[in-house]
Specification:
It holds the Pfam family Glyco_hydro_17. By secondary structure, this protein is of the alpha/beta class. The protein has twelve helices and eight strands.
Amino acid sequence: MTDGEAWLEKNDRSGKRSRWIVIGVVAAAIIIVIAIVVGVVVSKKNSSSSSSSKSTSAGVVKQTDPNDPSTFVKDSRLKQSFYGIAYTPEGAQLPDCGANLEDVITDIQLLSQLTTRIRLYGADCNQSALVLEAIKQTKVNMQVFLGNYPSATDGGAAYERQRDILKSAVQSYGTDHIAGITVGNEFILNYLNANGGGSSDPDSAVGNQGAEALMVNVTDTRNMLTDLGVSLKVGNADAGSYFNKELLGQVDYGMANVHPWFANVSVDVAAGWTWDFFEEQDVALAQGLSNNPQMSIAETGWPTASSDAGNESNGPSIASEANLQTFLNTFVCQANTNGTEYFFFEFFDEPWKDKQFGGVEGWWGLFYSNRTLKNIEIPDCSSSSSSSAAVVTTTAAST
Ligand SMILES: *[C@@H]1O[C@H](CO)[C@@H](O)[C@H](O)[C@H]1NC(C)=O
Ligand SMILES: *[C@@H]1O[C@H](CO)[C@@H](O)[C@H](O)[C@H]1NC(C)=O
Ligand SMILES: *[C@@H]1O[C@H](CO)[C@@H](O)[C@H](O)[C@H]1NC(C)=O
Ligand SMILES: *[C@@H]1O[C@H](CO)[C@@H](O)[C@H](O)[C@H]1NC(C)=O
Ligand SMILES: *[C@@H]1O[C@H](CO)[C@@H](O)[C@H](O)[C@H]1NC(C)=O
Ligand SMILES: *[C@@H]1O[C@H](CO)[C@@H](O)[C@H](O)[C@H]1NC(C)=O
């Protein structure tokens, strides 16, 4: 908090918008610090591990042939309106892996009615193969950005473990449904928090050091793919104002977390704020680089609940289904129309996050954790034919 406030003061003259940016960054930083601490505690706990991998999704999606996942019955409330959606399968956290094919098939059946693109964060608990197998069995039109979530402090163990899982998934399933491999999630943000002495400048000396560390893993992933004889994009994901230029200059794509909630932005202006932030912080940065990395919003959304009273409001707005609806109504189809690439955060509520972090962390889903759609109406627009949809709308409005 102290570091954040100092930084905020130092930058105050640049006005209101950058104050929002700073606030968002500070909030994100606090969350990540919590994540690191909890991660360490959890990994120290020597657990009895590999708990039950029982399906929790039985009966959620009907199939006309119970043995053929491609015969699922569509839900008319779901519309394929999202550019992409952020997804973590249930039971994909070490050491308590419980992810299983039946649940992931159900999730893919639901997700495919909302989008043609998903992104994963990591590869542990066999999630890469489970998702690719589910796409195969459901026969849906779906591309997945696989993920490798490395740690900067484990000598490369998490990176290498996940690289090997990714390698075997690519070998088993080929690349038809893989859009890319994302190496690193908020790596520079974490690196600066751990080593930066309060700096939040991703292009500082410490930021460059972090970028070089991650680049070793990016290069290793590229080599792994070359050895397999396949061509796939390799990118990375970070908080929206934490892209290091040298790193972004060497990857194929960058995914940026942009969260109006954590920036204490009112829901009424959240969609516009998100777009402005992304354009100014991320798209502009990429345009200045000669490799022209493809930029997308890695996460944006709105929480519907908080587990404690203190986090029910971000100041101007509360966590609620009504406010998620407002954000959906003002962001999704508009962003499609103007070609903004984003992954809506997120598929369903995640009880493991609520348990570990509390507050709003576990409550960002379009669905509850039991895979029932929340009390929301999914916007009806098509991300793939947005320009013709826009023409139709204009014509209709002018007659
Ligand atoms: C991972 O999932 C795939 C697809 O369901 C399965 O074929 C494979 O056996 C699983 N691997 C492990 C180690 O569980
Ligand atoms: C991955 O990066 C870590 C540092 O973050 C490094 O210790 C490790 O050697 C790297 N491993 C590979 C295979 O690139
Ligand atoms: C693009 O979409 C966003 C998100 O809804 C919106 O806020 C922004 O104003 C749009 N930009 C343009 C140029 O239409
Ligand atoms: C808000 O939630 C965070 C976790 O996201 C928690 O650490 C914090 O104590 C909560 N704050 C209040 C005021 O309840
Ligand atoms: C955002 O608003 C919450 C709730 O009012 C407050 O506790 C928090 O300090 C604010 N965060 C920042 C960075 O101003
Ligand atoms: C799913 O969870 C929601 C929220 O807790 C609850 O209202 C709903 O009744 C549950 N649905 C089923 C089918 O269990």
